[in-house]
Amino acid sequence: MRLDPDNIILKKIGKAADESGFRIYVVGGYVRDLILGIRDNDIDIMVLGDGIKFAELISEKFNRPLDAVYKNFATALLNTDGYKIEFASARKESYSRNSRKPEVESAGLIEDLSRRDFTINAIALGLNEDNYGMLTDNFNGYRDIQDKIIRTPLDPLKTFEDDPLRIMRAVRFAAKLNFTIDENAFDAIKKMKNRLTEDKVVSQERITNEFLQILMTDKPSAGLDLLFRSGVMDVIFPEISALAGVEQRKEYHHKDVFYHTLIVVDNISMKTENLWLRFAALVHDIAKPLTKKFIDGTGWTFHGHEELGARMMKKIFIRMKLPMNRLEYVEKLVRMHLRPIPLAKENVTDSAFRRLAAEAGNELEDLLMLCRADITSKNPDKVNRFMNNYALVEKMVMEVQAKDELRNFQSPVRGNEIMEICGLKEGREVGIIKSKIEEAILEGEIKNDYEEAKKYLLDIKDEMLSSFAKNKSKQTAKIKSSRS
Ligand code: CTP
User: Less Cβ around it within 10 Å: N or C end of the chain?
Assistant: First the structure.
């Protein structure tokens, strides 16, 4: 089968290979994405022979220095024309960078392809003139892409043993591309899951990176559920798998917090690409299992789960090597995720809204988004009612904030200047003129700036002074008539 990558850079690299006698192929994600019709700027070039030498030749031809050379892995990196091009010698070992024996042994094309993670990533596309665009697909990757299947080229136990990170990659590709994991591969994942964290074969950063990529897919529940059903979640994030399960006592049962959480994460992912808001949704109920109590006559309670959940975050961030500068944000959302609920009732004082707004600060919008995503009831009337309640909370908070602004707000033209321009002495009238300027700003008649406010003052000055004068004469007349 032949494909036309229609890419000038690839044509140029292919020509250089012909001139220098190298056999080269594009492999991995670029080929997979080309078949799927997805644009990809990461190009992996497999070189039969010395990959670094070929990369150096290309670097000269493109007149660009190589961005990195990894001798141990026989690979080199070149960034050019918006592409990240990695040159690697065909090899016998796994493709992981964290392999404990990184010295690579050279191999032929098919042997190299067989040591890759999945058949969909084990298709090579020729770049030399005699095979330009020809696919080498000994493991039926093309068919698996059409059938939307994640399968390993070799026995999956061997493929995952070579590099356990592939367990996470299988789930990530399945989640991102909406593919299913082949049964044999899924069984192997279940068997091999502990290898992910055993003996430090795989670094925590790599596991976390894959996990966060899963969280950034369109519908993260798919990947999170695969992690859970394969037992991988238990290994990499046990607090999340502990959310699963329902306990029944007497006539009371509580909802399965894990499946509730998946819906919350999907809900929020429809609204935001903010990874940390998605993460907050994932962990918002994380302390429910630890705070769960059965109270006779009341049923199941989870008192304080929001506070304990927030306090659990630091350890989790450290263990998972998450960026510590996002900790406070996630803690805040977990801690506050119940706060807006009681504010949706009648007779709530302004100060309650003010306090919520002040405490949530810049995160108020995100907090309300989390609260809305947290509504997972199947009863549409209930969902509507709760959504309306949050709309009300939002409206009230905004109203209070607007009022507060009015309170703290000052006319840009100050009292002394008003006195000077209007020839007034200190007193009530100065205050009246000042409020009139402020009102005009808040009503949007003029901008909140000094020049506009001064011009406005000059415009209203005569009218204001004459109305003060009229009032004064009225008052004097009143006084006179009351005396007579
Ligand atoms: N590979 C592998 N095992 C790994 C990592 C990578 O076999 N643990 C191989 C796969 O053939 C993969 C290629 O190396 O396609 C390039 O890896 P990478 O750039 O990490 O992934 P891509 O498949 O290009 O996909 P993406 O960029 O979406 O991660």
Answer: C
